[in-house]
Design brief:
The complex is a heterodimer. By secondary structure, chain A is an alpha/beta fold. Chain A has 14 helices and 11 strands. In chain A, the strands form 2 sheets. A 9-stranded mixed beta sheet of chain A has the order 3-2-4-7-1-8-11-10-9, with helices on both faces. In chain A, strand 2, helix 2 and strand 3 form a beta-alpha-beta unit. Chain B has 1 helix and 8 strands. Chain B has one helix at 32-39; strands spanning 44-48, 54-55, 70-74, 78-87, 100-107, 112-116, 132-140, 143-150. The chains are: A alpha/beta, B mainly beta. At the A-B interface, helix 4, helix 6 and strand 5 of A face strand 4, strand 5 and strand 6 of B.
Chain lengths: 381, 156
């Protein structure tokens, strides 16, 4: 690995849950101020800004920033991983120095929520919506039975994903679902889209988060331990779940992760901590296989056996994930936040000796993917 | 009830039958031949004149080779069940339908598409991955959509 160019110098989440007094614009501004305070920087230091769905220019103006670099790439919940990657490229190119990567979403209270149009003359509107799909719970879940058929993954193994992750978030006052959940409880919860039950689906909450991305050099002069970006990748394929090239593989994850691992010059043994965006229970299974931590069809048993739970050798989704901690609709920001906390040694369920964390994000229904390799060390040992 | 529809003979079945407020496709000039064919009880997709790939959804050029030489062809209507969910979270207009099967099927000619499975109960025992299917057509408040039923002799 060459020396990393960029680092996360500030990171913060807003309040989470039900926040009817905060619009989506407010949540972005709140997240920005919190992240800047964490970094020990002020509005005057900021020259770059990013946001998804909302135009970053609207956010910048409300915040009181006059940016000379901005990125509104909006590719679902992985947008913020993409923004970190793009910000690092801009910093490397000398186009920006201090970039705010921001997220705010009023998914639950729907205050000042930006519309997500699904036009009837678009491809989704013509060739999927007429068949009764109704948002992520009926679209993201559609590939899974094929995966289960080809790999022999059982319903109990699928249910073990939220059950095992609940061990991480158990007792966390910030978690939307802070209780322990058993496999039986997950299987017995309300049917949503068979075989998926309610507890195999992420919750719906309000909240936001902010990151301050700057040069590695500048980050070293600031108050917090820098979290260096060792490598990153992004990839995309079909925006329609019905047109996925292979329903049993997160092929986009494979490409983004290969790019990130290659740039970072790491192998799987170097990874101390993993976040895999878990909008639904099967996504971490696809992720573990796509990233090569396990072989094809092995992920279900790997999770059920506790390898990713507290005490396991590959701690995964240590905030409880979108299934237990929070999910505002575009969860990727919170996956990055947890990786930063683990690398700083300040997580609620802190894993000992985390030096390298991998964050895998997904946009829509395996359509887009981005991967970040983060470390609290400037160079690999 | 199993609804088997011989190719080219339009026989409109009652399947999922969503009501008022259900999403309907608004065709564009490029996609209209698909919907016009469905209205006549034909399943049509595009085929590339250069590399001969069948593809779906409709486009102005072949996504395999970029050729603009594309034409519409009727396909066999034979397909297999790739994957599905039994939906308990009704979309607008589907409230009165009850649990229904939303599926991804693969046509014999290659392309995949989203659809509903009719002609079998919406229970896992009746819905076997890879089971052979045949297209049928359902008139939903004036718009005919292709749906799929277990192929005769292959019901689970």
């Amino acid at each position: 690995m060459s020396r990393p160019v960029a680092a996360i110098a500030g990171a913060a989440e807003t309040s989470l849950g039900r926040l009817p007094a905060m619009s989506e614009l407010d949540l972005h501004v709140d997240a920005a101020l919190l992240a800047l305070a964490d970094a020990g920087l002020s509005l005057d230091d900021v020259d770059g800004i990013t946001s998804a769905v909302h135009n970053p220019v609207e956010i910048a103006h409300a915040l009181g920033v006059r940016p000379t670099w901005f990125d509104g790439t909006s590719v679902g919940g992985t947008s913020f991983l993409v923004h970190v990657r793009h910000a690092a490229a801009a910093i490397a190119a000398g186009q920006a120095e201090v970039v705010l990567v921001l997220h705010g979403e009023s998914r639950r209270s729907v205050v000042g929520r930006h519309p997500r149009p699904m036009p009837a003359d678009g491809m989704l509107g013509q060739f999927e919506l007429p068949f009764g799909v109704y948002g992520p719970p009926t679209m993201f879940t559609l590939p899974y039975l094929r995966y289960a058929h080809e790999t022999g993954t059982t319903l109990e193994q699928l249910a073990s994903v939220p059950a095992r992750q609940s061990e991480w978030s158990h007792g966390n006052p910030r978690a939307a679902r802070p209780s322990l959940a058993s496999v039986d409880e997950v299987l017995a919860s309300t049917p949503i889209a068979w075989p998926f039950t309610k507890l195999m689906c992420c919750m719906v909450s309000d909240g936001g988060g902010g990151l301050v991305v700057t040069s590695a050099e500048r980050a070293r002069e600031l108050r917090r331990t820098p979290v260096y970006l060792w490598g990153s990748g992004e990839a995309a394929d079909s925006p329609l779940v019905s047109q996925m090239p292979d329903l049993t593989r997160a092929e986009t994850f494979e490409r983004s992760a290969t790019a990130a691992f290659t740039e970072a010059r790491i192998s799987h043994n170097d990874v101390d901590h993993l976040m895999v965006y878990d909008a639904f229970a099967h996504v971490p299974l696809y992720g573990l296989e796509a990233l090569g931590f396990v072989g094809r069809g092995e992920a279900g048993a790997f999770v059920a056996d506790g390898n990713t739970a507290p005490g396991g050798h590959l701690p995964m989704n240590t905030n409880g994930g979108g299934l237990r901690y929070t999910h505002t609709g575009m969860y990727g920001m919170f996956a990055i936040q947890e990786a930063v906390r683990q690398l700083r040694g300040e997580a609620f369920a802190q894993v000992p000796d985390v030096d390298v964390s991998v964050v895998q994000g997904v946009g829509h229904f395996f359509s887009e993917a981005a991967t970040l390799v983060l470390s609290n060390r400037e160079v690999s040992a | 009830m199993t609804c088997i529809v011989p190719l080219m003979v339009p026989m409109f079945v009652s399947g999922v039958s969503p009501g008022e407020g259900a999403a309907q496709a608004l065709p564009t000039p490029t996609t209209r031949p698909f919907w016009d064919a469905a209205a006549e009880g034909r399943l049509a997709v595009q085929q590339c004149g250069s590399c001969e790939t069948h593809f779906f959804y409709p486009r102005i050029a072949c996504p395999s080779c970029g050729s603009r030489e594309v034409s519409w062809v009727d396909v066999s209507g034979r397909a297999t069940l790739l994957s599905y969910v039994i939906n308990h979270l009704p979309a607008p207009g589907f409230e009165a339908v009850g649990p229904h099967v939303i599926a991804i099927v693969q046509l014999e000619e290659g392309p995949t598409m989203m659809t509903n499975i009719i002609g079998s109960d919406a229970v896992p025992d009746q819905l076997v991955i890879d089971m052979p299917l045949q297209v049928a057509f359902e008139d939903r408040r004036g718009q005919v959509v292709p749906v799929f039923a277990p192929r005769e002799g292959h019901a689970a």
